[in-house]
Amino acid sequence: RHRPRDGRHTSLEPLSQRRLRTLSTKSMVEANGTSTAAARALPAIVKAVPSGDTVLVMGADSSRGPPPEKLISLTGITAPRLANRSTDDSPWAWASRDFLRRLVIGKPVTFVIEAPASTVPGGPTGGPPREFGTVYFEGLPLQQHIVAAGWARLKGVALQDEVLAPIEAASKEEGRGVWNEASAASSVRSIKWAGSFDAAGLVAAFGRQPQEAIIEHVPSGSFLRALLLPGFEQVTLSLCGTQCPPLKRGEDGVEEAAPFAREARFFVESRLLHRSVQIALQGVDKNGTLLGTVLHEQGNISLELLRVGLARVADWSSQLSDNPKELREAERQAKAGRLRLWREYVPPQAASELLGRVVEVVSGDTLVVADAANNETRYSLSSIRCPRMGREPEPYAAEAKEALRRLLIGKKVRVTPEYHRSFEGQGGGVQERLFAAVLFDKADRNAAEVLVAEGLASVSKHGGAEERSAHYDALCDAEADAIAAKKGMHSGAPPKKGAAVTDLSLPASKERAKSFLSNFTRGGKLRGVVQYVLSGSRLKVLLLKDHCLVTLALVGVRCPACARRDSPSSGEPFGDEALAATRAACLQREVEVEIESVNDKTGVFNGTLTLPDKRNLSLVLLEAGLASRFGAAGDRS
């Protein structure tokens, strides 16, 4: 058969009738003896072991997709029946099945069908119909292996078989397997069926430690049913951080499969079905389904699915995983090779960039950037979310905003717009927000990544079709490191409380403001941060040493009045220009303030302000023609 040059399985079309006939009709023969039947047997791989006397085999060639399968009950023997929700195990049923499972699962065998296919279906999962025959393992019929170990009884004409009858007699005499009647009662399992116990309690009890388990069913590539050992808890498990294409069965019983869904399921089935594995439980989703990682002796099945392009990283659950960085690296490899799900993947193209300067930090993830023409645009940092500010800020909201202020205010940045989002505004209207990557410094550091790495922001969990940052993988890696290091909001502790701020800018605080004057004048130049610019010559400044918020009027100069939001008046000529100049020069910057007096009527302090570059703001405004000197205070200053 032709194999694609790149070695990938590129087709999931139904297998041809010719291949099915090759696997089935040639083997439907009457066996005239063990040697004759073995000579006519066809090769296969044991895919599953439903019970102690039944195996599911599949064709050995899977190069063109999932091969055909046959469900074979071994003729001449009967093993104890396993439990279901309505009946308990027959004595020794679990041990019988486990013996056969360990003996042949995943191993090459040959088989002969000794009777036509029955009308008995393969089971509730819509598998192949049950057929009866002999399966040969290591040159002998499986019946001989099973009967010799005592895990099945002969029935029908096999009771007179010259080979099997003496083997059964020896097993019975020695009390092997099902013939050990003294221990029969203790061999019946007490199964905790899914839904009969608290899934979250199971996660807490195991504490993310890997547990021995057997994979019992694979509904889809990333959705499994398993039996935990030794407690026999039946669990439904979704692979943590991994999402395969879905498979759905309609009301008419017809299976609907997304592209590569059947191939993903077969990939997992052929490696894990009825295999001994370890499962690390890592959480529970909103529907009560357990999230976890399945570890086989050959590796982590989630990583393997991602590497071959049969799964995508599930953003919403990847951070519960112990290895989110490895998951994303595996997905990157599949994208680079354009494997399967990524066969039409096109790397994101760099959007148009603009250079500007940060003039305001609105919150931990939102800032205002002015371009060369001083046109200001508000941007939100792509694919992250910081705690929200407001009347009652969320924990770490103030810390995130302060970190971004220290990082970017007044600096030149490179902005790459990436996507838009529409949100419902407070007044009921629709607000449009522009999200962008903001890079700074010569090393092009990503501001969003810095915040995430410090535990001051979380990475947004995007839907499969949603646009996201071009740096999304790096953001997720930074978040994983922050979680591991328990930084910021991941520490589990509230932020450290700073000293309370005394607000002397309020009208009701004018009398109290007078009592602070002597303290401020004795302090000389006081370090502060400009919180708000009211006009060209009036500002609100937070004094860092005294933790006081004051209104400062520049002594000896006056700027034209600017337009007010609460008034239809347009203000005085050049008032808005003076406001813009002061705002651009010092908003949210660290400055030095020297206070000279306080207005007894308003509680506004008079003084001078020195900019970060050591220039006097009053002189800057005068030289720009945006302020005028007035009064005796102007002469003294």
Structural topology:
Layout: H1 17-24, H2 34-40, E1 42-51, E2 54-58, E3 69-74, E4 77-78, H3 93-104, E5 108-113, E6 130-137, E7 140-141, H4 142-149, E8 153-154, H5 164-174, H6 199-206, E9 211-220, E10 223-228, E11 233-239, E12 242-243, E13 247-249, E14 255-257, H7 261-272, E15 276-284, E16 290-296, E17 299-300, H8 301-307, E18 312-313, H9 315-318, H10 324-337, E19 354-363, E20 366-370, E21 376-381, E22 384-385, H11 397-408, E23 412-424, E24 430-440, E25 445-446, H12 447-453, E26 458-459, H13 472-485, E27 502-503, H14 510-522, E28 525-535, E29 538-543, E30 548-554, E31 557-558, H15 575-586, E32 590-598, E33 605-610, H16 617-623, E34 628-629, H17 631-636
Parallel strand pairs: 3-6, 11-16, 21-24, 27-30, 30-33
Antiparallel strand pairs: 1-2, 1-5, 2-3, 4-8, 5-6, 6-7, 9-10, 9-15, 10-11, 12-18, 13-14, 15-16, 16-17, 19-20, 19-23, 20-21, 22-26, 23-24, 24-25, 28-29, 28-32, 29-30, 31-34, 32-33
Helix pairs in contact: 4-5, 8-10, 12-13
Short description:
The protein is an alpha+beta fold and 637 residues long. The chain has 17 helices and 34 strands. 25% of the residues lie in helices and 30% in strands.
Provide a count of the helices.
Answer: 17
Rg (C-alpha, Å)? 37 Å
Q: Please give the share of residues in helix.
A: 25-40%
What is the total tally of β strands?
Answer: 34
Structural class: alpha+beta
Low-confidence stretches: 1-33
Please state roughly what percent of the residues sit in beta strands, choosing from under 5%, 5-15%, 15-25%, 25-35%, 35-45% or over 45%: 25-35%
Strand order of the largest sheet: 1-2-3-6-5
Q: Could you tell me how far the N terminus lies from the C terminus, measured between alpha carbons in angstroms?
A: 94 Å
Shape call:
elongated
Most strands sheet: 5 strands, mixed, barrel
pLDDT averaged over residues: 88
